[in-house]
């Protein structure tokens, strides 16, 4: 087991949110109406299922699966994104990590504990934190500071 450096530590809330995320997929008809209203109200920055949030960087691939939640937010002139994906893959975190590495991202840290895993990767433009378990993953994407 590799420990994740404290500067990149995975908050317990992130892993707990992933564990609870599959519950969100149960209300499809009501969920569709709510998702449409949320997307319209947030100008596409928040999706409660089915779509990546507005502005998601094309250079950040995501694994196949059902998008349960997507959100983007701007602060200090930079935008960051969070996406939760329910996946049928045997090891979604490993699949997500391999896909990011194939897209040119370099692993910065990784670790696992009790069926949960996490990896931090970066390229010239973004840092991507992937955390999850056998049910799926949460991607947290932040732009690197201006050089």
TrEMBL record:
Keyword terms of this UniProt record: Signal
Highest taxon listed in the record's lineage: Bacteria
Signal sequence residues: 1-25
This protein's name: Lipoprotein
């Amino acid at each position: 087991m590799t420990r994740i450096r404290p500067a990149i530590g995975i908050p317990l809330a992130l892993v707990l949110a992933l564990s609870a995320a599959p519950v969100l997929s149960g209300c499809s008809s009501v969920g569709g109406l709510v998702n449409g209203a949320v997307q319209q109200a947030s100008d596409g920055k928040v999706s409660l299922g089915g779509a990546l949030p507005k502005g998601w960087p094309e250079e950040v691939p995501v694994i196949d699966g059902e998008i349960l939640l997507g959100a983007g937010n701007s602060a200090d002139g930079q935008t960051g994104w969070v996406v939760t994906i329910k996946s049928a893959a045997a090891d979604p975190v490993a699949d997500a990590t391999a896909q990011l590495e194939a897209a040119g991202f370099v692993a910065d840290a990784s670790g696992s504990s009790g069926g949960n895993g996490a990896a931090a990767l970066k390229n010239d433009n973004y840092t991507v934190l992937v955390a999850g378990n056998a049910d799926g993953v949460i991607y947290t994407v932040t732009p690197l500071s201006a050089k």
